[in-house]
Amino acid sequence: MPHSIMRNVFCFLLLNLVVFQFSGVVNASQVQCFFIFGDSLVDNGNNNYLNTTAKVNYSPYGIDFPAGPTGRFTNGRNTADFLAELLEIDEPLPPYANATDWDIINGVNFGSGGAGILDESGQHFGDVLTMSEQLSNHEAIVTRLAEMFGSRMLSLQHLSKCTYYVGMGNNDYLGNYLPKYYASTTKYSPRQFASLAIAQYSKHLLRLYLNGGRKVAVNALGKLGCVPQQTAKYPVSPVTGCVETSNAAVDIFNEKLKILIKALNLLPGARFLYVTEITDNPSYGNIKVVGKPCCEVSEDSLGHCVEGSTPCSNRDEYYFWDSFHPTEAAISLSAKVLYDAMSPLLQTTTAAAATTPLVDVA
User: Fold this and answer.
1) I need a surface site. Which of 24, 173, 198, 250 has the fewest CB within 10 A?
2) C-alpha distances in angstroms, 89 versus 18, 82, 174?
């Protein structure tokens, strides 16, 4: 047998052995491996290591989380945590900043508070990991896996079996377009800005595809005009209590995102899925307070909880934790909606991934 064939067979066997032996994080879960891209709704500590104001590794954040303040932008578990639990993953995905070589086989969390689709979004916070930078970190994982498995092709083959969750765009609106932070975007109409963001998003998602991503859930934007930061600053509808001009701008983005997802699914083996936490009949559980934050918030544009302050005691009855982020109680409800929407991606092996050859474009 030629040496090159023997080497390929050895690398293939090694890949399967490594995945089998070191799959403790996702052992017996509904996914083989799981990766998350996003902003503060999923960040679980990546920003702690950055020179940025967009980090919350202090009290009262984490007041209901077993490990206390960890960098999660809420009082307890965030969207990434709940998705992992619903997928029956044994423990929360580690932040990329702390990931070991064995972690990256099973999946990591790239999320960064303040991050956006556009590189400029969130720059006023200082250092944040934009989606472009998060993709660079993912590509570093492709390289590290290639070194472990013996070839880039085997690395991509492994990643093609993973499930991905992408939730970006909130800061392109709340931290860029809607407050007009940057002169470069003030000239755009809502439709023009949505087109700009979607054009960049398409490049990002294609980049993910070219680096192994095949099963990708892409979360639409929520009703951003309903967050306390918006309702405290702009005129609200007497019917909804939200800033409907902001919601209308976001709706344009979401409609364009649906079109983008359909286009991406024309790629060989691609299974991109548009998901949303918005439903016709939303369940609020025990939540009774939806218009104001649970904690005392700072008066600056950050809208974070004041460090060391005492939050409300009935946190399970509040929808919002601070001026931007929901409470653990609210997140538990929205994450279940997202999980249900992700069901088409949750087969252990898909026909597309099994039959479509991967092309190494590097």
Assistant:
1) 24
2) 18, 10, 31
